[in-house]
Amino acid sequence: MTDRKPMIAVLTGAGISTDSGIPDFRGPQGVWTRDPDAEKLFTYEHYMADPEVRRRSWLARADNAAWAALPNAAHLALAELERAGFPVRIITQNIDGLHQKAGSTPRKVLELHGTMFTVRCMGCGERGTMREALDRVAAGEPDPACLSCGGILKAGTVMFGENLDGETLSQAGAIAKACQVFWAIGTSLTVQPAASLCAIAMTEGAHITIVNAEPTPYDVIADEVVRTPISEAVPQLVRALLAAHGNGVAGGGGRR
To answer: Domains in the chain, please, with CATH?
Structure first.
């Protein structure tokens, strides 16, 4: 047992939020598995060029399960780890804000793909809230334009065909290099450059754990691969760290 707490980097994908009622994209019941054409709603080229895609996108945003979703045991366990004094940095591919809702410090959560709760104009760059834009949709505007310049409004998320924010990606890379423990949770590790953070951490000597229902391309370099349901596996990982460093036992979870 040691009092020195390792720095923990956590890369999370859609799989961590499925137990909160938010479907993933590529899983057996994923959004794109059930409706391959839905991928157009998340593709920049189609969104910018086709008003019908934009109209469908606004309706999908209004119906997004994340509006009513609550953090599950995995999100809560990661927040508990931070409260226990561990240096935790969460790098998420999700746009649902559930890590922050669970109690993780917002500045310690890097949202690689942005957030669904804001909008920005693709013409003048002005930003606003998604709720304001959706209120306009509900009032009869199927494709609300920017009130300042008339440009196309888009969610504050990164679509396919768009580059990730350079500063956010640079911060994520620095975290992967500096950590002693790297957990990849609920991500297929097929989308670059996010997936490469796993290899960066491994190269720098971090202990790699992958928690995902399906195999990933990085399983071969992992120190541990966990197939147990995420809302059970993550609390158990947290309990193990807390016990090893004299912080007691985290709540929730189950056997791996």
So the answer is: 1-22+71-113+164-256 (3.40.50.1220), 28-63+118-157 (3.30.1600.10)
